[in-house]
TrEMBL record:
One Pfam match: CHAD
Biased composition (Low complexity): 301-310
Renumbered residue ranges of the record's region Disordered: 285-310
CHAD domain segment(s): 8-286
Organism: Mesorhizobium ciceri
InterPro entries, alphabetized: CHAD_dom, CHAD_dom_sf
SMART domains tied to this protein: CHAD
Protein name: CHAD domain-containing protein
Matches recorded under PROSITE patterns: CHAD
Transmembrane segment boundaries: none
Length: 310
């Protein structure tokens, strides 16, 4: 089955199906993380983000359920954040080396990378990771049992309004975060923009048969923006670690080059992300989702053969 709402079928059943599939896949990755945590934790967190994006999309249709489950999977993701971040920091070093090959020649970032690998091994081989995986698994299994309590409007007009409202809220969040990132440029502003962009990209997938305009090009642009914002987030996290007092990344003589490359990368990524986000989220969220609501009402009310063809 796909990560896409089928307008020919009842909305409650479709959302239950997709949510169960995403949490089921998250559980699969959690099991794999016991022996291969580096990539499995990342894949698990991606599935949790997909589930939370779905819950945000239909939140107005069953607020109690969606808020409870969203918080549940947010807590699960937080359990896995530390071990996943350890891997992301190593990947950031590798991206910096690839982006600035001349500056990082002669293994200029090698000492920092070695420390990060040692830290990753400590986190992945300790008892803390196993405990986190166990707690996350239990929470996801409990969440699977609760999916059957979700109840959304099934009348076409009401269901369309639920979907349009969920999409509109996320677009508003993206527009607000873009304005703040452009004016203040704080790390939290870009992080909020990243989360909104990621959620919007997932909404495009979920609403692929209902979105009023062709989404292929937009989805590609949103995905690319999300990746660059993710790279920026990792750069900002590493920069914060570099400025911390405990010298986690090493003494100043080992991190001088890293500090220089982080600053250059941050500047480039911020400029690129702001330009792309302005193109994607510059339009009025209300105007965009008004068209979505109209098309969704038509498609959800149409006979199956007509909805399939639209």
């Amino acid at each position: 089955m796909s990560f896409r709402i089928d307008p020919r079928l009842p909305l409650t059943g479709e959302v239950r199906r997709i949510l169960a599939e995403e949490i089921g896949k998250a559980l699969h990755h959690l099991d794999a993380a016991r022996s291969r945590p580096e990539q499995a934790l990342h894949k698990c967190r991606k599935r949790l983000k997909s589930a939370r994006a779905l819950l945000r999309l239909v939140r107005s249709g069953d607020e109690t359920f969606c808020e409870t489950e969203n918080q549940c999977y947010r807590n699960v993701a937080a359990l896995l954040a530390g071990p996943r971040e350890a891997t992301a920091l190593i990947e950031t070093i590798d991206r910096l080396a690839a982006s600035f090959p001349k500056e990082s020649a002669d293994d200029g970032l090698g000492a920092v990378r070695d420390r990060l690998i040692a830290r990753q091994h400590e986190l992945h081989e300790g008892t803390g990771l196993e405990a986190a995986i166990g707690a996350a698994t239990a929470a996801c299994e409990e969440g699977l049992h609760r999916i059957g309590t979700l109840a959304l409007p099934e009348q076409p007009e009401q269901a369309a309004d639920v979907l349009a409202e969920g999409a509109r809220v996320t677009l508003r969040r993206a527009r607000k975060a873009l304005d703040k990132a452009g004016s203040r440029g704080a790390a939290d502003d870009f992080h909020d923009l990243r989360k909104a962009a990621k959620t919007h990209g997932m909404h495009l997938s979920l609403l692929g048969r209902l979105w009023p305009t062709p989404i292929k090009a937009r989805r590609k642009a949103v995905d690319e923006l999300g990746e660059r914002l993710g790279d920026l987030h990792d750069v900002l996290v590493m920069h914060a670690l570099l400025e911390a007092d405990d010298q986690l990344l090493g003494p100043p003589e080992d991190t001088k080059l890293l500090a220089k490359l982080l600053k250059r990368s941050e500047k480039q990524l911020k400029k690129s992300c702001l330009a792309s986000a302005a193109e994607l989220f510059g339009d009025s969220p209300k105007r965009s989702t008004r068209k979505l609501a109209r098309k969704a009402r038509d498609d959800l009310a149409a006979p199956p053969e007509e909805a399939a063809a639209s």
